[in-house]
Each structure stands twice: as C-alpha cells, then as structure tokens.
Specification:
With 298 residues, the protein is α+β, with helices and mostly antiparallel strands. Helix content is 46%, strand content 12%.
Length: 298
C-alpha cells in the first residue's frame, strides 16, 4: 500500500494569485516548492550517539555501518539516478511503496515524528500523512473546494470581476475574457488554504459599504474612468473632453498605492464624499451596462 509524505508548507499555504507591485503590475504566482531530503546525513539518536543515516534503495538497513557490515555496501558507494529521483517531493508530496525509502523518510530528522536529531536539518519539514486520521478533514476540504469551484463557474462575469478584485486589490487588471478570470480564480483556489476557500464560498460584493466602494474603485480603474497616476499626487476622473480632472488629492510620495485606495474609500464613504460617491456610482452603472451589452453580443 502506498505511503504518502507531505511538506508541512503545502498544508499551510496562504498565497494570492498575484503579488501586487507598487505600479499595479502583476507578478508571478507563488508555487509550492519541490524538495528533496539529503540522501545521507549525520544524526543523533536518543542516547546522543552519532551515526550516518543513508538511503540505499535496495538495503534493509538505515545506517551506513550496518549496510557495510550486513550487505557489503561500500562507505563511499555513489547514489544512483533512481535513488536521487525517487526521493523528490513534487507539488508538495511524495508517494512511495518502497520500504527502504519509507523507513528512511520516517527516520529522517526533517520528519516531524523522527526520533533522530540533526544540527543542520530542522524538524517539521514534512510529515507522513495519516490517511485514517485526516480522512474527515480531507473530505471536508474536498467538499468545500468543490463548492467554491461550482460558485466560480456559476457566477456572471461582473460577479467574477468583483471576486478577483476583492482578492487582488483595486489595481489588478481584470481580463476581459470570462474563462481567463475563471482560470485565475481556480488556480488561486488550488493554492489557497481553508480560509481562502471559505472566502470564495461566502463572497458577497456589497457586504459592507466600504467593500462596495472599494470594488467600485477597482472597476472604475479597470474601465479607465478613474486614475491614481495620471495627475501627480491626486486621484482623477476622466472628463467629457477626455481630459483628467482631479477629484481628490492624496500624496503618491508619502503613501503606498494600497494606502491611497484606503484613504480614498474612507473619503467616499464619509458625509463629505457622498456627492462624489454618487457620481462615481452612476458612472459605474453605465460601465456595467456597456460591459453587459458587449458580453451579450459576443
């Protein structure tokens, strides 16, 4: 029966689709790294004795001295290509039926439950997956991810746009194609943790006035009506003559892009910003109608 080992990092992913740069550009998705344990390493047992733990795929023993004594495997025996390849964690997991590799990984000091210690290998790098113990949790996770994926496929393009803006921020450039948006959200779903899965399941765009205003700002940036960089240290709207008109002064020198959005949203949702909020909301509705008509014709 196959035994599965999993990287602890793969069980605790908290990654967004993209990491936003100050200029609002998109950077590469964070991926689960590959990992391969050392094929041999010095370890200390419970009595503080030092021994050389070594993986040899055809050996029945864990330690180099026993391998030499019982099986005549030389101290300086080179590792085979198969031994190097078999020990890789790919996409966060390693599944094997090899008793020698299973025993080696159980003894390896990077394993959370290994009885051996090492000066150069920290514990908690990976663990053996207890299928029976974690079956219920895995089933719940699978159900939740299925529900989240179903929601992604059933939402309209404007609803998906709001979801991806909520995840990535107001400066995220939303693709015009619904399938591309779905694919980005599904990729994020594959890499997120339980809280991220529930974020999709429970997503409500107008949950609060702050959230509604923040999404509106993101939509208007995407439609080209609002800009945070066309005028220095100001947020501007597109005028009837296709010029830029300052609507709020917020320093781009003293504050990050996200902080400027925060300040702008705070203003829009205040009494003083109500008139501008209503104006932007009207423009947002016009933009939605235009997008909806374009989508139907396509």
């Amino acid at each position: 029966m196959p035994t599965t080992f999993v990287l602890e990092e793969a069980l605790n992913l908290q990654s967004e689709i993209y990491q936003q740069t100050p200029g609002g550009q998109r950077s590469r998705i964070v991926k689960i790294p590959a990992y391969r344990p050392y094929l041999e390493t010095m370890v200390r047992d419970e009595k503080n004795n030092t021994r050389r733990l070594r993986y040899k795929e055809h050996s029945n023993f864990l330690f180099a001295d026993e391998q030499k004594k019982e099986e005549n495997i030389d101290d300086n025996a080179k590792f085979t290509e198969s031994e190097r390849d078999n020990s890789w964690f790919r996409h966060g997991i390693l599944v094997t039926e090899s008793n020698s590799l299973i025993n080696y990984l159980r003894a390896y000091p990077g394993n959370s439950k290994s009885p051996y210690k090492s000066d150069k290998i920290k514990p908690g790098i990976f663990k053996e997956l207890d299928v029976q113990k974690e079956k219920e949790a895995l089933n719940e996770d699978l159900r939740n991810r299925t529900m989240a994926a179903h929601k992604i496929f059933t939402l309209s393009k404007p609803e998906l746009d709001d979801m991806i803006l909520d995840i990535n921020g107001s400066f995220f450039e939303v693709p015009s194609d619904i399938q591309e948006v779905q694919n980005l959200l599904l990729e994020w779903l594959d890499n997120t943790d339980d809280s991220g899965v529930k974020r999709i399941i429970n997503f409500i765009p107008n949950e609060t006035i702050d959230k509604e205003a923040r999404l509106m700002v993101g939509r208007l940036i995407n439609s080209g009506f609002l800009s945070f960089d066309e005028l220095p240290n100001a947020i501007a709207k597109k005028g009837k003559a296709n010029d830029w008109i300052k609507v709020r002064e917020i320093s781009a020198t003293d504050y990050t892009p996200d902080q400027r959005v925060d300040f702008f949203v705070t203003f829009l949702t205040s009494k003083d910003g109500k008139a501008l909020y209503d104006e932007l909301k009207t423009e947002d509705l016009k933009s939605k109608e235009t997008t909806s008509k374009k989508t139907k014709t396509e």
